[in-house]
Fold:
Amino acid sequence: TGSTRPERILAAVQRKATKGDARSVVNTIDQYCRYQEWAMNVGDEKGAILDSIVCEVKPSVMLELGTYCGYSTVRIASMLPPNARLLTLEFNPAYAAVARQVIAWAGVEDKVVLIEGPSGDWIPKMKEEFGVTSFDLVFLDHWKDRYLPDTKLMEECGLLRTGSILLADNVICPGTPEYLEYVRGSPRYESKYFRSHLEYTRVEDGLEKSVFLG
Ligand SMILES: O=C(NCCO)c1cc(-c2ccc(F)cc2)cc(O)c1O
Ligand SMILES: [Mg+2]
Structure:
C-alpha cells in the first residue's frame, strides 16, 4: 500500500521546511502543491486574504472547521498572539494525524487545539468541553454541505456574538449555494465577497466574509 497525498505533503514538510518556522512550512506546502501535486489547502492567494482578515480581527478565540493537513491552521496560528487560541475541527482521522505533525513541525502547537470528529457533534459541546464563550472569528473550510447547518448550530448554541465574523472558503468552487443565499439574504449578517482563485489554479473561487449582527 502506497502513501497518501497528505502523507506525501507531511514528508515534504519534514524534508524541506525549517522546524519551528511556520512560514517555511506554509511556503513548502504551497511549493509542493503548486509544482508536485495539487491539494485542497486554501493556498497562497486566498491565504493572503485570510491573513489580512486575521490581522484585522486579532481574534482571542478562533474556530477552524476543516483542518485537512493543517496548512491554514499553521498560517493562522503564526499570526496569533501567544495567549490566543485556535480550535480546529477535523472529521477524517487520517487528515488529523497528518495535521498534528505539520502543526508540531511548525512549532505552533501551543496555540492550537485539534479536535477530531463530526462538527455537528462537537459544536454543541464547545462551551462545556473547551470553555468557549463565543468565537471572534470562524474559518469555514470543511464539507461544503455542512457550512449552513453548522452556522445555524453555532447561532443556536450562542457561539456567535455581535461582531463575530464568519470567513468561508470555496463559496464558488466547489461552491456553497445554500450557505451564500443564507448569509447574503439574512438581516442578521453583513456579507462581503473577496474574489480570488481556487488554490494553485486559474479557476475562479473566493471567500465570503460575514459579520454576525446579533
Ligand atoms: O472538500 C473540501 N474541503 C473539505 C475536505 O474535508 C475542498 C475541496 C476543494 C476542491 C476539490 C476538488 C475540486 F475539483 C475543486 C475544489 C477545494 C477546497 O478548498 C476544499 O476545502
Ligand atoms: Mg477549502
In short: The two ends are 51 Å apart (CA to CA). The chain is about 45% helix and 25% strand. The first helix runs from residue 5 to 16. The pocket of magnesium ion (ligand 2) is lined by residues 40, 42, 141, 169-170 (CB under 6 Å).
